[in-house]
Amino acid sequence: MGVTRQKHAKKIMRFYKHNFQFREPFQVLLDGTFCQAALRNKIQIREQLPGYLDGAAQLCTTRCVIKELESLGKALYGAKLIAQRFQVRNCSHKNPVSGSTCLLSMIENGNPHHFFIATQDQDLSNKVKRKPGIPLLFIIQNTMVLDKPSPKSLAFVQKLQTNQLVPEYQKQSIVELKEKEGLVKQEGEKRRKRKRAGGPNPLSCLKKKKKKTQEGQESCAEKKKRRKRKRNRVKAEAMQSVQKNEGE
């Protein structure tokens, strides 16, 4: 039964790691009801939870949760001592509110700190399930259990796969890319300048070379003609002189 439960937890952790970018150390927010259940069932949260999640975990709570446990008196004195051992995360409440209200405020705006919620409060659990990407832990039959992904989380992932929704953690990247749009325009201007700049047309150079060769060919032909005429003139003069000598 323990092996099956461990495999179940690993499968769920892969889902949150792949689709919601959960990384170690895992941030686990605990309320007073979870601490009380752990005390009653003799569960060592700090020792057992990292092995169950298959990774390092940071256990934490809020001042509102501790204040709530203090206000409930001796009945939850042991749970208060357990909660006080964990890291206390700052919440936005100047005046203490209920533990469930405080924990819900810690996972607003898409749960940017990637918190797990550990609680036995059924009403809080239902509200957590209405938000995508928030792992839920509870205790049942003396063991800690990682709840399966809620329908809201499954629907969110399905929309991501069909490119119908942008996740919260990518929105900031999109904003930064839009701010860099000016750099893209400058690159476009540089490209246009490169197009306007040009050297001499290679075809015009070829034409000029052809003209020069033609002119050269014509001058050579004229020289040959001149030489031929000169030779003919010399021959004619020689013939005339020969004829004169014979007549004498």
UniProtKB/TrEMBL annotation:
SUPFAM superfamilies: PIN domain-like
Keyword line: Nucleus, Ribosome biogenesis, rRNA processing
Residue span of region Disordered: 184-248
Gene Ontology BP annotations: rRNA processing
Descriptive protein name: rRNA-processing protein UTP23 homolog
Record keyword Nucleus present: yes
Protein location: Nucleus, Nucleolus
All copies of domain UTP23 sensor motif region, residue ranges: 191-210
Matching InterPro entries: Fcf1/UTP23, PIN-like_dom_sf, UTP23_sensor
GO cellular component, one term: small-subunit processome
Protein family according to the UniProt entry: Belongs to the UTP23/FCF1 family. UTP23 subfamily.
Pfam assignment, any one: UTP23_sensor
Biased composition (Basic residues): 223-233
Function: Involved in rRNA-processing and ribosome biogenesis.
